[in-house]
Design goal:
Strand order of the largest sheet: 2-1-3-5-4
Strand content: under 5%
Radius of gyration: 25 Å
Number of helices: 21
Oligomer: single chain
Order of helices and strands: HHHHHHHHHHHHHHHHHEHEHHEHEE
Distance between the termini: 74 Å
Largest sheet: 5 strands, mixed
Length: 514
C-alpha cells in the first residue's frame, strides 16, 4: 500500500472520529438495554467481582447473556480512572476510526485503486448502518474490526502472501470477534468454508487447517460457555424450540438492504425494485466479468461466504430460538462485506474488455450519486442525534421527571421496575425487574397460553412479599412501551395491591397498600 493511500485513509479515519465525536458530544454515546449489561459487567470487573449483570438489590447474577469482550475493553479503559459509561465514547471513537481505515485497506487490496479505497472508507464514515452501531454502546465496533481483520489475514494466507503465523493470527482475530458477539460464529463458519473450498492444497491439509482454525477461533468461546454453565447452570440465556417466524424476517431481510441504496422515504416498491436490479448487476459482475487478476479474489470470496453464513445463521436462530431482529445492527457485517464485494465487482466491470459505454458512464454516476445520498443522510442523522441524543442517553431520558424522583429515594430502597436498564444507567440504583408475564421470544405465537410464563404467578407473589417486608417500591416507566411481555400498570395495581406514591408525566412510583 502506497504512502498516499495510507495518508488518505488516515485522514478519512480521523475525519470520522471527529465527526462522530462532535455528533455525540452533548449527550454521549447512545444507551440501550444491551449497553446496561456491558457497562454493569465492566464496573463489576473493575471492582474485582468478575463478570456480573446489573446489580439487583437482592443479589447480582453472573453475566451469561453477552460474551465478555466488550466488558473487558470497557474495563481496560476504566483502568485509567474513566467510568465505563464515559469510557465507551473513547472506545467507540477509536474503533470507528479503525474500521474506516481497515475498510479502505481492504478495498485497496481488492482493487489497487486509491480512489476506490477512499470511497469505501467514505461509505463506512457516512453510512447510517455503521454510524448507528458506532454511536451506541454496543459490541459491534470491536466485532466488525476483529472479524474483518481475521478475514483479511486469512485471505493473505490463502493467496500465498503470508505464512502460517498469519493464518494463526486470523484465527485469533476471529476468536475476538466471536467473544464480542455470539453471532461472531458466522465469521468462523465463513473462514472454515473458505479453507475447505478455496485453499489450493490437498484435502487432508485443508481438513487439518480447518480443524486448527476452528480450534483457535472457538476455544476462548468454549471456555466462556463452560464458565457460564458452571456458574449459572446453562451456557447462555437462549432457549431452543421450533417457532418458524420466517415470513416477517424475510421481509425485513429485503427491507433494510434497500435503504442502503435509497432513503427510507422512497416508497418500498421502488426501493425493492432498485435493490433487485442492483443484485442482478452485482451477480453478473461477480460470476461473469473477469477481475483484474484473472479471477475473483480470496477476500471477496470470503466476504460472500460471510454474507451467506450470517444470513443463514439468523434464519436458523429465528426458527429455533425465536425471532431475531433483521435490522441494520444485525446486518452490519453483511453491509461491510457487501461494500467490499461490490467494489471488486465494480472494478471487474470497469476493467472488462470490451467495457460498454453504459458501464463506463454508469459506474461513476452511480458512485457519485450514492456518495451524495450517504452524505446528506449522515448530515441529517448527525443533526438529529446532536440535538436529541440516542436511546437512554437522549434528552428525553436525561431530563426524565420519574428518573429524578428515583434518585431522591433512599439508597437502600428496593426497586422493582419495567425499566431495569434505564433506572440503572440513569439513576445508578440497584434494581430488579418486575416478573415477566409472557415469553419475550414468543412474540409471534398466536395462542397467548403458549406465550405465558408458567412461573409468573409465583414470581408475582414473591415480589409482593418482598415489597411488603422491605418497604420497597415499584417504578413503572410509561416511555417503555415495547416490553409487551410485562404486566400492565392496571394488572400490577390489582394483583399486587399497589397505591401511588409519586406520580409523574412519564411514570409512577408505587408502594404496596398497607
Amino acid at each position: 500500500m502506497t504512502r498516499s493511500v495510507s495518508w488518505g485513509l488516515l485522514l478519512t479515519a480521523l475525519a470520522g472520529i471527529l465527526v462522530l465525536g462532535f455528533v455525540t458530544r452533548p449527550w454521549g454515546m447512545g444507551l440501550s438495554a444491551d449497553s446496561s449489561g456491558y457497562i454493569a459487567s465492566a464496573r463489576s470487573l473493575l471492582k474485582g467481582e468478575g463478570f456480573r449483570e446489573i446489580p439487583r438489590w437482592n443479589g447480582t447474577a453472573p453475566m451469561i447473556n453477552f460474551p465478555p469482550l466488550e466488558s473487558i475493553l470497557l474495563g481496560l479503559v476504566g483502568l485509567f480512572g474513566i467510568d465505563p459509561l464515559k469510557g465507551a465514547q473513547v472506545l467507540n471513537l477509536v474503533f470507528f476510526g479503525a474500521n474506516i481505515f481497515l475498510t479502505g485497506v481492504l478495498v485497496f487490496h481488492l482493487t489497487r485503486s486509491l480512489w476506490m479505497s477512499l470511497a469505501g472508507s467514505f461509505f463506512v464514515l457516512t453510512s447510517l448502518v455503521t454510524l448507528e452501531v458506532h454511536a451506541m454502546v454496543w459490541s459491534e465496533p470491536p466485532f466488525l474490526f476483529f472479524g474483518f481483520l481475521g478475514l483479511f489475514f486469512l485471505a493473505l494466507y490463502l493467496e500465498g502472501r503470508a505464512g502460517y503465523p498469519t493464518f494463526l493470527a486470523a484465527g485469533a482475530s476471529m476468536a475476538f470477534a466471536f467473544l464480542a458477539k455470539y453471532s461472531g460464529v458466522s465469521f468462523v463458519l465463513a473462514a472454515l468454508a473458505g479453507i475447505l473450498l478455496l485453499e489450493k492444497k490437498s484435502w487432508p491439509q485443508r481438513l487439518v487447517n480447518s480443524f486448527v482454525m476452528g480450534g483457535v477461533s472457538c476455544f476462548p468461546m468454549v471456555m466462556w460457555l463452560v464458565r457460564n454453565r458452571l456458574l449459572a447452570g446453562r451456557p447462555t440465556e437462549l432457549s431452543w424450540y421450533f417457532e418458524p417466524y420466517l415470513n416477517l424476517t424475510l421481509r425485513k431481510l429485503l427491507a433494510y438492504p434497500s435503504t442502503w441504496l435509497l432513503p427510507e422515504s422512497v416508497p418500498a416498491v421502488i426501493r425493492g425494485g432498485v435493490l433487485m436490479l442492483f443484485l442482478v448487476i452485482w451477480a453478473r459482475a461477480i460470476f461473469v466479468a473477469p477481475s483484474t487478476n484473472g479471477g475473483r479474489s480470496f477476500l471477496s470470496s470470503l466476504c460472500l461466504l460471510l454474507i451467506a453464513s450470517h444470513v443463514i445463521l439468523y434464519l436458523f436462530t429465528t426458527v429455533f430460538m425465536g425471532e431475531q431482529p433483521f435490522d441494520n445492527r444485525a446486518l452490519s457485517p453483511v453491509f461491510i462485506a457487501a461494500v467490499l464485494s461490490v467494489f471488486e465487482a465494480g472494478r471487474a466491470l470497469w476493467k472488462a474488455r470490451p467495457a460498454s459505454f453504459v458501464i463506463r458512464m454508469g459506474l461513476p454516476v452511480f458512485l457519485l450519486a450514492l456518495s451524495l445520498s450517504y452524505a446528506v443522510r449522515a448530515i441529517q442523522w448527525g443533526s438529529q442525534v446532536r440535538d436529541e441524543g440516542l436511546g437512554y442517553a437522549s434528552r428525553e431520558w436525561r431530563n426524565s421527571p420519574v428518573i429524578e424522583g428515583i434518585k431522591k429515594l433512599p439508597s437502600n430502597t428496593p426497586i422493582y421496575t419495567n425499566g431495569l436498564d434505564a433506572v440503572y444507567l440513569l439513576a445508578s440504583k440497584p434494581v430488579s425487574s418486575i416478573p415477566a408475564k409472557e415469553d419475550v421470544l414468543k412474540y409471534h405465537v398466536p395462542d397467548s397460553k403458549h406465550r405465558a410464563m408458567k412461573n409468573y404467578p409465583a414470581e408475582l407473589e414473591r415480589m409482593k412479599n418482598d415489597l411488603q417486608t422491605t418497604d420497597g417500591v415499584v417504578v413503572y416507566l410509561n416511555k417503555i412501551y415495547w416490553r409487551w411481555y410485562y404486566p400492565t400498570e392496571k394488572e400490577l395495581e390489582e394483583h399486587v395491591s399497589l397505591q401511588v406514591f409519586e406520580q409523574f408525566n412519564d411514570g409512577t412510583i408505587y408502594r404496596v397498600r398497607k
